[in-house]
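Summarise what follows for lecture notes:
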Amino acid sequence: MLDYIHNHPQESERLLGIKYEQLEKLLKQAEKLHNNKQEIATAKKVRIIASGGGRPPKLSISEQIILTLTYLRHLTTFQLLGIQFGVSETTANDTFNYWWPIIGDLLPASLLEQVKKTQAIEKLLRKF
């Protein structure tokens, strides 16, 4: 989906609810917040095993953010999101729950309303 949006920027608003320029700014700011959050978490950790191990994530940061915006825009199931992005249903759910608070802090209320499709999702998302 990320490649499609980069190749067809005019479709960004239709697919994600925000313009391509807004998406680019959001991706940069969200990545910066994510990196800050990771640095703080790493500084607090007491490591027994050296860092750098483990499996790398299947989705890039940009793809994770687009997954979250896709969910907000289309209200699809996490199972379908997982299939669309090539990850498991659990990974899609975990990705959304990680990125939603970060994106919620970055988007102005007016843009957040454009991304959300119905009032029902608004009630659901207030819990986060």
